[in-house]
Amino acid sequence: MSTPLRIDFVSDVSCPWCAIGLHSLETALNRLGSTVKADIHFQPFELNPAMGPEGQDITEHIQQKYGATPAQQEQSREMIRQRGADVGFEFALGARTRIYNTFDAHRLLHWAGEQGKQSELKHALLSTYFTKGEDPSNRDILIRVAGEVGLGQEAATEVLSSNRYAEEVREAERFYQRNGIHSVPAIIINERHLISGGQPPEAFEQALKQIVAMK
Questions:
Q1: CB burial class (10 A; 0-12, 13-18, 19+) of residue 163?
Q2: Tell me: the pLDDT tens digits for 30-39?
Q3: In what order do the strands lie in the sheet with 193-196?
Q4: For the chain: N or C, fewer Cβ within 10 A?
């Protein structure tokens, strides 16, 4: 019999460790096979909620925010690229040159969840930014990507041109912040167990086995 697991994956589409963490988690779930039945819900978190529509040069941004030199950033990007490759995700070096606001992407993900297409859209948005280097705040790009994963472009346009799901996204962000989530990815199992960071598949597999054993 499969053990049901509710998984709330708190993350941002502009977070490289979130892409690594998601693919690592999915690798672990595939290894566990039919022993678990995972129900994944993608929850919003904005790394840069005050970012303007023009975005910011990524090297400049990381230096200001974290104090990392360009050389340190280059070393970090190579490590991230390798970690992504290890779990089947492509970080295209040089493709991502700016950091953008992601609020509209989260609104679209909330809507996609109601349409049963949240996972597909999440994966597509991560690839749009990290693999193709496209702007995840650009509404034309968001509408195109929605269409590519089987969501109606006309309906996506209606969502993005209105204020729909804005309060739902903000309330979800406040909820997780109130409950101590201040960095992502944060993976919450059955609303009780927290796994933090872009862990390797082995760490997720071990943690999930321990959680299943406690049920």
A1: exposed
A2: 999 999 999 9
A3: 36-44, 3-11, 186-189, 193-196
A4: N
Contacts of 77 (CB under 8 A, 6+ apart): 91, 93
| pTM passes above 0.90 | yes
**For 142-159, how does the pLDDT look when each residue is reduced to its tens digit (9 = 90+)?**
999 999 999 999 999 999
